[in-house]
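As a warm-up, study this chain.
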Amino acid sequence: MALILKKHQVGIVIFSLFLFSFQSSAQRIFVNTIGGVNRSFLYYSNSSTNDYRSSRPVVIILHKSGETAREAFAKTVWKYIKEPTILIFPNAVNKIWDCKDEASADHDIEFLKFILEDTYNNFHHDRNRVFIFSEKSSECIAQKFRQKYPKLLNDYQTWIQTNKNDSLSALGSVQSLLEKTVKTDTTYSLWDNPAVRKKMDPIDSLKEYRLHNRVILEVRYGGFAMLGSVHTGITDGTYAKLYNAHSFLDIHLTKWMNDSIAWFIDIGRLKVPQTQETTAGGSLRTGGGMVMPLTIGLKYALPRVRAHPYFLLGSGVVQVLVFGGKMSPGAVSSGARPNLNSEVRMVFHTTIGTGIDLRFAKRFTLGANLRYIHSANFESAGKVDAIRGFNLNVGLGYIINANSLKKLPFPLSNKK
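Now compare it with the structure written out below.
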């Protein structure tokens, strides 16, 4: 029984802490120094949702002379205002709103101005809907504030207490005040929370992120690792060694038909480093060449925003060119022609790969690509009988038609 009682007590404590936290979030006291005097005001929100991005209207309620902000707040159950609203209850100096003393009135007006600035900085209210609700004795402060800062106040209204239903009349008066559409000379934009992703306009989304109907020209550079299984060890008259080719440069053109599917054409150049060897007899053997694959295929991209991972499959032809020969000692001085040879091969190949493109600007992309090239066998040239291996590269792309609105995936009438 004692254990059950303790659990019950813990539950009451937790509930009390939660209730206190909720009430303190809705009602707060702020203090600041205006004109050398500490001034305070009570902040109240009739809604429990997040105040920090509210864009709610503000009603400043001036208490009756001789009372306090707390007393004005206690007169009415303000939470029954239909619209989510920020209510501000400022305290007058010595409980009196004094318009006869110009210095005191100026300090009160600056105090109200500070309240609006501080409220916007902390709670981001709607600056296009600011009102003052005052007692008859404090109406002069609202008038003077509107005269000095017409851009900060939409309208004001007085609260005339007549009977025991004054609390209901106050709620009705504030409600009618909020329904007014009076505008100031300045229209303020509502606060945008930078931490919240905005819903992008479809046209802007197409221009900034989407791939639909885009044409991208890309320059790629990387390396090529040829498989050992294609080495033949057969020496021909060119003395070239294609398996030593590692530097790969290609031009890649992609046309996206929609956000997922594209066709591409790629032409590359695998540079074969030139070799020079001297034989025991003093002869010079030299060889070199290049491999040029041409690929046409399709891409499939996964749905993303700025980064676009994709898979590709293509086919085409590979042209293999090797050349070289043997030069005897003294051949140049004697005028003898060097013994040069060349070999050309052209075969079909298949390419499969994956990659990712990052659209870091409206017109530019940065990408990385890994693909496997597999060609058909050919008669040995440059000590290989096929071009097979892995190509890893990085590329910089330029979007040719970044602003194009042709063939939209949605009608322009859907633009919001």
